[in-house]
Write a structure and sequence with these properties.
Number of domains: 1
Strand order of the largest sheet: 2-1-3
CATH superfamily: Rhodopsin 7-helix transmembrane proteins
Largest sheet: 3 strands, mixed
CATH architecture: Up-down Bundle
Structural class: mainly alpha
Low-confidence stretches: 303-316
Shape: globular
Order of helices and strands: EHHEHHHEHHHHH
Helix content: over 70%
Mean pLDDT: 80
CATH class: Mainly Alpha
Strand content: under 5%
Length: about 325
Amino acid sequence: MVTEFIFLGLSNSRELQIFLFVFFFVFYVGIVFGNLLIVTTVSSDSHFHSPMYFLLANLSLTDLSRSSVTAPKMITDFFSKHKVISFKGCLAQIFLLHFFGGSELVILIAMAFDRYVAICKALHYTTIMCGNVCIGIVVAAWGIGFLHSVSQLALAVNFPFCGLKEIDSFYCDLPSVIKLACTDTYRLDIMVIANSGVLTVCSFILLIISYTIMLMTIQLRPADRSSKALSTLTAHITVVLLFFGSCIFIYAWPFPIKSLDKFLAVFYSVITPLLNPIIYTLRNKDMKTAMRQLRKWNVNSRAKSYVFYNCEINLI
């Protein structure tokens, strides 16, 4: 019986590990502050109480949660000689990764549907994308993510392990854990591709078709009316390509390459959650304006608190 697994990590070089620690620590801090800033901005500003920004805030929550499953463990392991994780901890990583990843996949589809209704069914937008529908979409996203992760966990629990416990990665995921099973893994690989791979590929194709229809619709409109919609769609398409591109190579590509798999694992768990808030804030003028106002409000509130504190001291 295997009670723990050992991560081989990204490198054995001590100097390179110190560099990677600094690099990923900065990235993770950026992930936390960037995604929390989007959530705070959307929830505090009434101008952003709309379906698009409601879904964007939920996307930021899933990005932050998905990265927090693997990044803190990876960062602390750079100073560990033996990068060990318990069997239950490995199963927890598999469950949480697919839970947040599956939820994010549904949220991205919902964001595409929201833009489709706003562009192609503009007159019926408020009727279709009402508050109850948005809440139902988010609940469905978390529910589908839970069901997907349970199915993945059921596969991992039934793996027969008989001694091999070195995972050539920095976190536990089904493709890497399957390699340690002491049985014919061909059927297991097919099941992973059928579960995660087909779902990812079909969702990606559906999104590409919907965004193509939206872009063709925008081209028929005057330039002054289509510029903002085109900017928003560009940000959405970029995020979709980044997220689904890495997922397809991890779960659906039949010819794995060790170095490429590690790069995609880093890209999926650390880089993408940081790029998403950057893409949405840089491509959205309203978000940038609201964040400046939020920063000014924080500075002013601190200044007022400081003045009030000094006045109290002087009175004393």
